[in-house]
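Weekly structure sync, notes
Attendees: PL (lead), two postdocs, one rotation student
Agenda item 3: pending single-chain targets
PL asked that the sequence for the first pending target be pasted directly into the notes so everyone works from the same version. It is reproduced below exactly as submitted, 343 residues in total.
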Amino acid sequence: MPTSPFPDDSADVAAVAHWLMAVDSTSGSETRLTRLFGDALTTRGWSLTRIPAPDGREVLLATSGLGPYVTLSTHLDTVPPFLPPRRDAARLHGRGACDAKGIAAAMLAAAERLRGAGIPVALLFVVGEETTHDGAHAANAWAAEHAFPSIALINGEPTESTLALGTKGAMRVVLRTEGTAAHSAYPHLGHSATRALVHLLAELDDLTMPTDALLGETTINIGRLSGGVADNVVAPHAEARLMARLVTDGDEVWTRLQRWSAGRATLERGVEIPLVRLGTLEGYATSVVAFATDIPALPAWGTPYLFGPGSIHVAHRDDEQVLIADLVAAVDSYERLVRAIRG
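Predicted structure, written out during the meeting:
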C-alpha cells in the first residue's frame, strides 16, 4: 500500500508521481495500483470506467464533461525491478519517474485544470505497455465497441518535452541453432549449436538493413542468449532473442533475416509493432524516437500525438529519474496541447 493517502492537491505533480511510484506495478502486477488510483480518481469527482484487461487486470478511463474528447493517455506498468521513489530538491528518482508515472501525474494535473475550465477531457491509464500492449488492445476494443468520442490521443512517453514526428516500429525475433551433443573432450564427434549461434550473431552488424529519411536506421538488439546443457557437453541447441527497431514494413526486415539465416538457423517471428508517423502542432519542438509505444494499438482513440517530459535514456535504468521542473512544465504543455487540438 502507498505510505500515505492520495495527495489532496493534484497540482503537486511531484507528490502525485511519488504516490504512484510507491506502489509496485511491474507489468502483469498492476491491479493494486489501478484499484487504488481508480478509487482516488472517483473521490476527486471523475467519472470512472474500469475497462477489463487480460488476466483480471483493468484499464482506467476517467472523463469529465460530454465528448468529443481529447484523451491524455499513458501507462501505469513499469519494467522490473521495482525501485521505490525518493526525492531531492530537483529530481524524482525511482521506477516510473519518467516512464511513465511522472507523466501520469502531469496529465492528471493538466486534466483537472481543463475540467475546472469546463473543457471536456478524458484520461486513459493503461497496463501492459512494457510487454505485449494488452491493456491498450483492450482499451481500443472497448472504444470501438462503445463508439467512444475521442478525436485525438496524446500519448505520454519521455520525449524530452518535444512532439515526436514518428516512432520506429519493433519486431521480436527468436533465432535458434541446432547441434549434436557429444563429450566436450571429443568435439569432432558432435556439432556445437552455441558456437554456430555465436558465429551467426557476429555477422549481424554487417547486414544491410532498411533506412528511412525521417526515422533513420533499422537496428537489431541481441537481448538474451541461452543454450547448451553443461560445460562438458557439446551444445545440442542454442537460441538468441532479438529485437529489431523498424523504419519500414516488418516484412522487409523479416525477408532479409530469413535470407541471411537460411540453412544455418531457424527464425521465429514474434510480437510486432508497426512504425508510426504522428501529428504535429505549430510552436512545439519536434523529434523522432526509436522506442515503440501503445499508439499503434489505439487507433480508435483518434489522431495520435506523442509528448512527455523526461529522457528515454534513463528509462529502464537503475538510475531512472526526472526533473521536477520538467514535470511541472509538462502540465502547461498538456493543457495547451488539448486546447490547440480542440481549436
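Discussion points:
- The mean pLDDT is 96.
- The longest helix spans residues 324-342.
Action: rotation student to compare against the earlier draft before next sync.
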